[in-house]
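hey can u check if this looks right to u? its 77 residues, i copy pasted from the old doc so theres a chance i mangled smth
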Amino acid sequence: MEAEMLWTAALTAGLGLIGWVLKSAVDEMQRLNILLNKTREEMAKDYVTKADSTAVMGQIVARFDRIEEKIDRLMER
């Protein structure tokens, strides 16, 4: 009877320890997931996407082309 109680206590303690370790790992994963999402949000505020950058560069090039045409017309006069 005593060996059975010791075995039960050891299993209970072991399973409790395994459960605690798993819960700690899950909590850490959730914390990291939250931090990753916050990092993504912050990066979106500070950095420009490739599509936005391409659109802005297109507008700048178009304006430079217009300025160049105006300068060429002034030089011809």
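The mean pLDDT is 93.
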